[in-house]
Amino acid sequence: MTSVLVVEDDPTIRTSLIEILTAHGLLVRSAPDGFGALREVTQWQPDAVVLDLGLPDLDGADALRMIRGLSQVPVLVATARDDEREIIDLLNAGADDYLVKPFSGGQLVARLSAVLRRCAVGAGALEAGEAGPAGGAPGVDRAPVVAGELRIDPMARTVHLAGRELGLTRREFDLLAFLARNAGRVISKRQLLAEVWRQPYVDEQTVDVHLSCLRRKLGERASRPRYLHTVRGVGVKLVSPL
Fold first, then answer.
1. Which of 90, 200, 229, 240 is 20 to 30 A distant from 216 in Cα terms?
2. What share of the chain is helix, strand, coil (3-state, %, to 5)?
3. What residue spans define the domains of the chain?
4. What pTM value is reported for the model?
C-alpha cells in the first residue's frame, strides 16, 4: 500500500486531506509542523509527502530543503503562494510538483498519482500518452553517449550510472538523451519542449518537474548539481563532473 505523509498545521485542512487520501486507498500519516515532518520522513519513510509551506516552526521551503537532505521521497507542495519565482525556486530546491490552494480532492489525488508515476523507480515505467515514433524519440543518434560515470545507450534505451542501471520513464530518458547529445550547451526550456515533447501548449513547469525527477535518480540536487546544471533565466545543460 502506498504511504503518504501529510504536513499541514491547520487541523481542519489536515483532517480533510487525510480523509481524501485514505478514501483513495492510501496509507496516511500526518505531521503538524516541519520538525515533525522530518521525524516522520526519517522513521516512517513514506512513499510521498504533501507539504504545506505555512508551518508554525519552519518555513515550508526550509522544511523541503531539510527533507531533501535526508531523503529523495517525492514531495508535492501544497501552497497558498502563487508567485512564479517562488514556485520555480521550490522546484529547483527539490519539489516534484505543486498545488496552489484552494484545490479539490480530485486535483490532489491526480497530482499525487502523477508525481508517484513520474518518480517511480524501475525499468519499463512509462507515462501514459508519451509513446513516440517507433525506435525511440525523433533524432536519436545510435552511438552511446558517455559523460563521467553516466552512459546513455539510445538503441537499448538504457541509462547506467557507475555501472548501475537507472529506471527512467520514457520522457525522462528522451530528456536526458537530448541534453547528453548537446552536452555543454545551455538548452532553454522552450527548446526542450519543442525538441523532446514536440507538443503544442505544454507548460514549462513540465520540464521543471521532469528535471527534478531526473536529478533525484542521478543522486543530485539543483543546489548541488553534478550533471544537470541550471543557468538561471537561460536554461539547463548537461556536463561531465570534474
1. 200
2. 40, 20, 40
3. 3-118, 145-238
4. 0.57
Percent of the chain residues past pLDDT 90, beyond the cut:
38
Backbone angles phi, psi at 238, to 5 degrees: -100, 130
**For the segment 132-169, what is each residue's pLDDT rounded down to a tens digit?**
333 344 444 567 888 889 999 988 889 999 999 998 88
Determine the pLDDT at residue 124.
33
- Determine the Cα–Cα distance for residues 194 and 200; give it in Å rounded to an integer: 8
The grid coordinates listed for 58 are 519552519
d(CA 198, CA 12): 43
User: Regarding the domain delimited by 3-118, which CATH topology (the fold level of the hierarchy) does it fall under?
Assistant: Rossmann fold (3.40.50)
Asked if 196 and 178 touch (Cβ cutoff 8 Å), the reply is: yes
Residue 218 amino acid letter:
L
Give the chain's radius of gyration (CA, Å).
18
Tell the residue number behind the cell numbers 498545521, with chain if given: 9
